[in-house]
Amino acid sequence: MVTSIIRRFIQALFVIVAMTVIVFLAVNVIGNPVDILINPDANQAERARVIAEYGLDQPLWRQYIDFLAGLLRGDFGNSFVYGRSALQVILERFPATLELALSALVIALVVGLPLGLYAGLRPRSVASRIIMSGSILGFSLPTFWVGLMFILLFSVQLGWLPSNGRGETVEILGMRWSFLTEDGLRHLFLPALNLALFKTSLVLRLTRAGVQEVLPQDYIKFARAKGLSERRIISVHVLKNLMIPVVTIVGLEFGSLIAFSVVTESIFAWPGMGKLIIDSINLLDRPVIVAYLMMMVLIFVGLNFIVDLCYTLLDPRVRLDAKR
Amino acid sequence: MAALLEVKNLVTEFPRHGAAPVKAVNDVSFSLEKGRVLGLVGESGSGKSVTGFSIMGLVDAPGRVAAGDIFFNGENLADLNAEEMRRLRGRHIAMVFQDPMMTLNPVLRIETQMTETLLAHEKMDRAEARARARDALGMVGIPSPEERLSAYPHEFSGGMRQRVAIAIALLHSPELIIADEPTTALDVTIQAQIISEFQRLAEERDTAVIWITHDLAIVSRLADDIAVMYAGRLVETGPVAQVLTDPRHHYTRGLMDSVPSQNTRGALLKQIPGMTPSPANLPSGCSFHTRCGGADGLCTKLPPEIWEGERSYRCVHPLGARALDAITGEAVS
């Protein structure tokens, strides 16, 4: 078990190193920040000074080494736009995105699991058909359009919920959170629902498929033959087998919730990382882009790692493999 | 004394789209006394397993018991509601399945799977349930049962898993165990061990057993009575000693001839010509007549059940029943 964890850890390190190369090269390809940074009226000497200041006169490999050295110190350089540490700029925005993504995940699980369970257990009922058709909508309607419709309906027409910003926040551990105040929750609800829509359908369909795969198994029939109650069969025998694929997918999808909340954040003017990265790309704010991408790499690698660990907890057969 | 189990004219159907339902079990009747072992024999698809599941009330939907009665301890199972049926399962009627690799839940510890069976029927604390589970494992010959309780199914071999399944079935010392080909998936040496242990445990508890199998050798060794099933119907029933030494039905004869034996070493094994008919498209009358050597025009009509002492058969041209020509003569003429 321990050796397998260490092995995974080393693998993760390799992934991160490979990603530094890709991120670094990719950012160098998308445009020259000098054009944006320097006043077009500046003379040649001034240009040279600024270029040297940002280390852009160095050969590429040299820049990469400097970049790596900075990375090890947790220093991504200063944002060209904000003039502050790029990492700090991102971390300020991180709680907003995290809380949005977590809320969306909770909604997806709370709505998706029971509905999927129901649709799997009673596949022929009318309610199940409605649920399944609904999930197709959840899959296929574009997020931005649904977001706009939410705003139109709940904010403009009905005036129930606010359409932008985070509302009132509370500071905990030096980070600002919305979900602890009533006003914040009201602001959080629509964007979270919008972001959750796709994942809910995913969890729902995954759960239903899992139920239908597990139910015909002999061990379920055997559990019935043992005289177990239907409730115990579903909540223990079915659910525990079902959780293996659900945890795997949900864990991985959580990363994409954080990384791709861009659309939802833009529509609801949610001041999170997604909005920041779009702005930064427009302004070619290289340090912020790099810091953001590296952070995403870390999040994905970290989530993968956690999912692997959960997997061994859920599935004893995987544990045996790890022991070998 | 009334029989422990009495199955009367049982019909179990599986509906088809736009056609008459398939009768997987068709007009099957038999009874079983306390402590007796019945071997239910037939080819794959003959309806043996469905008969077992019908008794358990576990026929997969949309299949259903369409007609007939099943009496257990004098109680008609059709009158029981779902909860009463659940209380019966596992406690009074237990079942062992064919494939031990599939019958235990892969993600639950053996302990969980055993204690939940106990807790589903009796009030007891976890420690007591655990102790009983451990004793049951020891009883079926699993070494160091205490440690094995916390193992997962994949850490057991096929034979060991089947022992666990048998231990689970025996937990409540049920009056009846339905064993659905429990040794078919095991290799021969393990088969022999499991059969003899099963036999011993059932005898100790005076448990009645329905042993579903296609292996006549097992039946001859284990069972008191035999019921031969073909295409959903019982074609011959009776005490094993009588039926297997002097079969009446041509199908029983065919099954016996296709068992390899010492005496016919080197000779070609006889086989029953043709294939089991599809249950969706059965020949009229005696379903076996299309494969039967002794069939003639009479066989296209469904033969009545003919009783001869303790045994019965459905055949208008029974084998070896010279003394009974008077009875069958009527049917022939």
UniProtKB/TrEMBL annotation, chain A:
Bilayer disposition of the protein: Multi-pass membrane protein
Biological process terms in GO annotation: transmembrane transport
UniProt keyword list: Cell membrane, Membrane, Transmembrane, Transmembrane helix, Transport
Membrane-spanning ranges: 12-31, 100-118, 130-154, 188-207, 242-269, 289-314
Keyword Nuclease in annotation: no
Domain ABC transmembrane type-1: 94-307
Coiled-coil region: none
A Pfam cross-reference name: BPD_transp_1_N
Family: Belongs to the binding-protein-dependent transport system permease family.
PROSITE patterns for this protein: ABC_TM1 (PS50928)
Protein's UniProt keywords contain Membrane: yes
Major location (coarse): membrane
Record localization: Cell membrane
Protein name stated in the entry: Peptide/nickel transport system permease protein
One GO location term (cellular component): plasma membrane
Automatic annotation (TrEMBL), chain B:
TM region positions: none
Gene3D superfamilies linked: P-loop containing nucleotide triphosphate hydrolases
GO cellular component terms, A-Z: plasma membrane
Keywords in alphabetical order: ATP-binding, Cell membrane, Membrane, Nucleotide-binding, Transport
Major subcellular location class: membrane
Membrane topology: Peripheral membrane protein
Residue ranges of domain ABC transporter in the record: 5-256
Gene Ontology biological-process annotations: peptide transport; transmembrane transport
Compartmental location: Cell inner membrane
An MF annotation (GO) of this entry: ATP binding
Family stated for the protein in its record: Belongs to the ABC transporter superfamily.
PANTHER family in the cross-refs: DIPEPTIDE TRANSPORT ATP-BINDING PROTEIN DPPD (PTHR43297:SF2), OLIGOPEPTIDE TRANSPORT ATP-BINDING PROTEIN APPD (PTHR43297)
Protein name as catalogued: Peptide/nickel transport system ATP-binding protein
